[in-house]
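Q: Hi! First time asking for a complex rather than a single chain. Here are the components, and I think there are two in total. Is that enough to go on?
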Amino acid sequence: MLALASSVSLATAIEMTTRSLAEPLEVTTRSLMGSAQISVHAGEIGVDEALIEVIRAIPGVRTASPIISRTFRELGGANENAPVRVVAIDLLAQTGVRAFSVSRGGLTVRDPLALLASNNAIVLSKRLAQRLGTSEGGTLPLRSEAGAVRDFVIRGTLEGPLSDAFGGQVALMDVFGLQDLISFGRRVDRIDIAIDPDADVDAMIDRVAGQVGELITVERSQLHRVGIDSVLETLNFGLWSMAAIGIVLSLALSYAVSSLAVERRIEEIALLRVAGMEGRSVTAMILIDTALIAAFATVAGFVLAVLVADPLIETFSRISAFLQVVEIPSVSVETSTVAAAFAVGAVALVAAAAPAYRAGHLKPLELLHEHQAPPRAAGVNPRLAAMGLVAVAVFLVAWRLGPLPAGLRVLLVIVSTIVAVAAGVPQLLLRAQRMIVFILSEMFPKIGHLLGVSILERPVEVGATLTIWAAIAASLIAILSVVDGIVGSVDDAVNGIYRSAVFAHAQSYMAPREREPISLENIEIIRTTPGVLAVDENFVSTVMFRGEPVKLETMRTRAVFDHADAGSVLSDDPQQTIDALLRGELVMNWAFSRHFGIKVGDRVVLATPGGAGSFRVGGFSKAFGGPTGVLSLDSDEFQKWFEPLGALQVVFWTTEPRQDVVDEVARRVSTQALFLRHGENLPSLERLIGTYRDLLVVPCLLVGMIGVVSLASLLSGNVVSRARYLAILRAAGATRAHRVSLVVASGLILGGIGTACGLAIGIPWSQVLTDLIAEMLGYRVAFRLDLAGTGAIVLAAIGLSILSSLIAARPAMHPHTPGRLSLRD
Amino acid sequence: MRGADIEVSDLKLTYRVGSNDIHALNGLDLEVPAGQFLVARGPSGSGKSSLLETMAGLRTADAGRVAIGNTDVTALRESEADVFRRENIGLIFQFFNLIPSLSVSMNVALPLLLGGQRLRQVRDQIDHWIEAVELQKRTEHAITELSGGEMQRVAIARALIVEPKVILADEPTGNLDVRGSHRVFRLMKDQAEKLGITTIMMTHDVEAVGYADRVISIADGRVAKDFGVAPAPGALDDL
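A: Yes, that's all I need. Here is the structure of the assembled complex.
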């Protein structure tokens, strides 16, 4: 019951957490999208506002509404730097696209434009106004992405669904006002199109695409989770994987426990059958018993989940704050939460179905014979052995077949290895029984022979225990390896290229994603500061390629490769790639090449503010990015095509003493507060990764708890069911030490074999998960096995198996136990 | 003479069953000289099995004393009692109480292995005792492959392999037919005589009397009657 309760709690807590995360993001997207069916966009550079009129003129278009959305930061006060999301729309053309209203002095304003006559007029959501403590007519100073402070005049209160976007931390203004404030030229982020009721969406997409040109993306509006980063998706995946493992463990445990329960009640069942109980009633009786246990465990697990969800959501909030500006509410219990809990609880019933059915179909006399006959020694089951072999074959194919999608490989590898351990390993042990008994007898002369046979006489328990233990060990090893792989890969790249560099940011490294860039003026100040040898400003943009967003970043090629190891950032032939960058060619990372099938030498066409740019791909980089990959360009070339406001990161190399030069840079850059770091890059990254690791600790602990409970209950069941066996040993002169040693050694051996299986399957799990992470995150993560961490897991597993065994051995320690009357039965 | 004198004095044992106290042994006194083959009879619930289990150190008496040779069994700590039993007492039960997952030879060897001896060191002893109970052809058979009589002979071999001072047998023929019962009685009697082992056998089987040096009856947790050596025919009819 405890194991089942743990599984229920794990799944329920994760459901609450992920839903709490997803909900505000979907509300935001829905509010911003309104009733639009088609979106027109071109990545970070935006689309020319002239296209609005072009689109409005297309037959079938009811309205085309531009939108710009930017994050500003609060100044001063307790919420210094807290994000305020400013959404700007064309108020004149807004009718019917997005649902909102504006009130002033408690009265709804019919013509919002009247409120927004000046280009710095703004309306705040009620929630934001309350947080800021502002009033209508007042002035609100906010800092823009570029670091400039702007004063906004508050003209009213935003109401309706739009005011719920970004968790209510939203302000609305006119699109043309915001264009001026952020120097966005005559561009907008996106144009949302609402079409006539009788118009066909796909036909309209084709029609609009024909008018706006091939570099602009026209697509059906989707409920994209705004701001959800692939990292967060990966975390979700990790959490649900842990939950799935927990559920599988519960299934295995429920099956084993139900089988044992039937076995222990065989006499009762036989007598009931003899007294006239029908087979189906026996089945129903066992299922009802299990259902009651499952119901109790579900309720207990549910309560535990509510307690566990809070720390989970807290950790998620920390990550969310890094990734985006959407506020995550506290956890809430919904129908889906209850459904998740009961779905896991139902697993117990599913697991009990087979033993219950079996019990119901045994003949009464067979049952009595079964009870009276001494237990039969277990033999090799050819079907299970064959199943184990098939599972091993599937594993080998899935593990080594690269072309399969990473997600499918992960699924096949995990399922096949679990089946191999559950079905195959006990059969293997039975086949090697004679040798095992001999070895154990030599190692432990007093109890070795008993150990060998007693462990192997119950293959169901052995299979369930090994599966549970191996899955736990493998999960922990896989998580450790994947995290270590990510940290290690980032570490190699960052340290390889920027080992002796100084990093400058306009905000803390751990600040939210939409970071403030360092202005071009300040970059120039850094460049001309005495002692600065070279500067590499990293401009970053998102461009659309074949309708998908791709990260475009830059490097000051000469500066970087005069001071850094080219091999750590460029693949293949670094010199050839450097030459390509200097010629103004693009360099792509592995994920871009893989995702779009682009080879070195191909040409790609990108939409830029300066028009369509055709670039030759001159080589490979080891850059980090999303699933669609990363393109790199020399900074000079980038500035020819794009109009950056500044660089999110500036890296520079200095003469020694470095600190003096850093201090001088900080002194000279007076318009922005720079965060300057050197020699501490890795700790920052490790803190970030540590946050992810923290998040995985909770499910890991829960899965670990399921493991301990499982092993303890299986061993306890073993002790209780073998009361007579232990009584016989006692009659033959086995001391309490013998009996306890027997139980503890059984647990230790099972735990040891399970851990070894976990280690064996944990390594391929880690490898395929690393591939999956690479596919999801869009950069190569080198597989690394953290030997120290793995060693710690092995020791912890052995420690836990001893703990579980000691819990189980308690009945065997009792002076008159086991089985007061066992010897007379 | 290998056997030991047994002295049981004022032995009391009470079980608590629900809210009731059951006085299984009610101040029982008994002396058995070394080498004697004693048969104890009595109705179900008279305290026979409780007496035997208390003598073997498997139960702790509420009061009284059990001395086997110079050892006060009732004064031993649990672990001391376990070791004493392993080295000095052979136990035989109605339901054989063999370990089904072990072979015949391993069941016989069990007390020696628990005492820390290695299998290769005790192979000759195992063979000797398996031969003594005439199961040479069954040495490596599984217990589940044996008949009831064969299982009990394995149990006897296990009890004898440590060459104990005392054999305590609780209804050893309760699950056997007449022929099997006589074979078991004969085997126990022969070995007891040969080794001078003190034997106490609790049984309902009237045939056992024919092998006894002395017969007693137990009722209500006490020795009800001591028939002495070789009771006259018909003297036990009322038991």
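A: The mean pLDDT of chain A is 74. Let me know if you'd like any chain examined more closely.
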